[in-house]
Amino acid sequence: MLHNIKVDITRSYINNSCATCFQQAQGHNSCSLSMTRDRDPLVVGRVIGDVLDSFTTSVPLRVTFATKEVSNGCELKPSQVVNQPRVDVGGTDLRTFYTVVMVDPDAPSPSDPNLREYLHWLVTDIPATTEASFGHEVVCYESPRPTVGIHRFVLVLFRQLGRQTVYAPGWRQNFNTRDFAELYNLGSPVAAAYFNCQRESGSGGRRRY
Question: Which superkingdom (predicted)?
Fold first, then answer.
């Protein structure tokens, strides 16, 4: 009898221990997933919130200025982004088209972004598996020239329902990416990237707002 009681107690201890370990593991995994979301560069950099709502990346997007590839949150100098970037779009079907929008949500200054968002570039009808030069440039590229503070420059990729006619806005300032997507029925973004940029020492000139 004593032997059986010991066995039952041992089994009970093992079962309870395993259950506790499993619950702790579940909690650890949940915490890890939460931390992963919290560490998303688009969230950390407040691109999600200031420019976009939360979305799930579903298409590869590669942005390259000359030989410098953009990684979210990296810093580039104005002299490195004078010319428009190469924007490579993933996908599998050339009959699928995409739109790229590039904006500055920190214009004219991060502390007083009353021109948010400033539109730097707008290209539509980019076929999947190609890059932006194969699309239709609706608003020509204007290179970043921040004058005060560190600015975020955000490139957003949308999947179109098909080829479409998009009209250039009357001005670049106070553009709204969310409103633009709603107007042209683009839905949620499928990818996004951003970099930081600030005025270089000794650089002059003012942005033409």
Answer: Eukaryota
